[in-house]
Amino acid sequence: MEVLGIDIGGSGIKGAPVNCETGELTRERYRIPTPQPATPESVANTVKKLVKHFNWQGNIGCGFPAVVQNQIVRTAANIDNSWIGVNAGALFAEKSKMPTVVSNDADAAGLAEIHFGAGKDEKGVVLVVTVGTGIGSALFVDGCLVPNTEFGHLLFKETIAEKWASDAVRKKEDLSWKQWAKRFSEYLQHVERLTWPNKIIIGGGVSKKSHKYLSEIKIQTEIVEAKLLNNAGIIGAAMSAVSI
Ligand code: BGC
Q: For residue 104, how far is its CA from the centre of ligand 1 (angstroms)?
């Protein structure tokens, strides 16, 4: 089945139709810069533009950078505060006139990695950590997702973990990759002690730069980079909307 997958991020909203049996994009992905301010109305209009671009008729799955519980946005760490309490699924469905499901962006990316990427056929506990502006997490047990784990929001080093160890912080504080890897290792050690995963998969913006830091990460769990890189969010979002 083909589903339109959309990945809503702080700087860009990207989408493509996805073959959910193979995990492949069936058309070239299309990106529209995220409108500023990224209010529910302006983001919904951008989703509508993507739907129009692909002339899409069918199910739509969206990954969204916040806690999404029963389609309702519950947090707004790196998005406009006016999202809190909004039924994002209903809003996008109304704009696009198509059945739409919204899930957390890291959960979506994780789903794609578990089915088609670095977590394929992996049993037991697998943790996907996405690192970009924020830190997202997706926890799987025998391939089943525990949604909205939000390990990027653990209290750590007297702050919120993503405010200390995200890629945005690395850039802002001008940390070398080695310095950042040391921080990120400490953070992962903390998460390791809470979840005891068999494998950690690193996704998000930093996954394509793993040659710069992966060998410097000092943890006891096996750690690998995501395989689907930039497309994981789109593919996983589509997968979550197969049956709606
Ligand atoms: C949000 C998460 C999201 C992550 C990555 C965090 O700030 O709280 O829901 O998955 O950023 O976008």
A: 8
